[in-house]
Amino acid sequence: MADKSSLAGKYAVVTGSTQGLGEAIARLFVERGVAGLIICGRNVERGMTVAANLNSDTCQVHFVQADLANVEDCRRIIATADEHFGIVHILVNAAGVSDRGTIWDTSPELWDWIMAINVRAPFILIQETIKIMSREKVEGSIVNIGGLSSYTGAARRAHVIAAKAGLVGLTRALAHDLAPHGVTVNCVAPGLIDTARRGPEPSHHAKHETLVGRRGTPEEIAAVVRFLCGPDARYITGQTLHANGGVYMA
Length: 250
Hints:
Low-confidence stretches: none
Number of strands: 7
Largest sheet: 7 strands, parallel
Order of helices and strands: EHEHEHEHEHHEHE
CATH class: Alpha Beta
CATH superfamily: NAD(P)-binding Rossmann-like Domain
Number of domains: 1
Distance between the termini: 29 Å
CATH architecture: 3-Layer(aba) Sandwich
């Protein structure tokens, strides 16, 4: 039987948590006992709805409208957690943006936007979070959500793949920096997951076949993240865990 209190008493921040993987992670955190949770997104109506659905007598859930391309918005997310809870044990950087385009089509402005949300935002969020973790002397957990294509490559996605690969590098580097502070830093690289997406499905998905004969679910990725944030994963840091049904073996 799954431990329904594995995150009891913890306070968490999950970005990109008003839909898809982020929402599934936020929901599982509440089910596993977190005492407080900050979710964020750009859509106020959707964010308030998710927060209301997750909020309970045992878990305070607060929604923060934020654009992660804005540095001050990133800082405000963590400041909100500090204001409401005074402590943060867990940060999950689940937000990300994708795009398609050849090297000829990608403008410097688009490149910078992709990098800002997929790499710079997690860095700023971690930077602000570790201030609280260090101040409160907690054993913290940070999980970044990467992507399969940063290992396999794909056409027409150089800017996105470069950003996701950068997130893996950031994970490894910060694992070194934050280990002395009692904070683990890991990355989860999902494979083909059944989630709603804007626009057509990327063509490179058709080239991948899972060994298990199906796609994964957001809940399965959430379970991996929950494990990395729980008490049984304190010996794991600087790692990328691949959850992809056997499409790619690291």
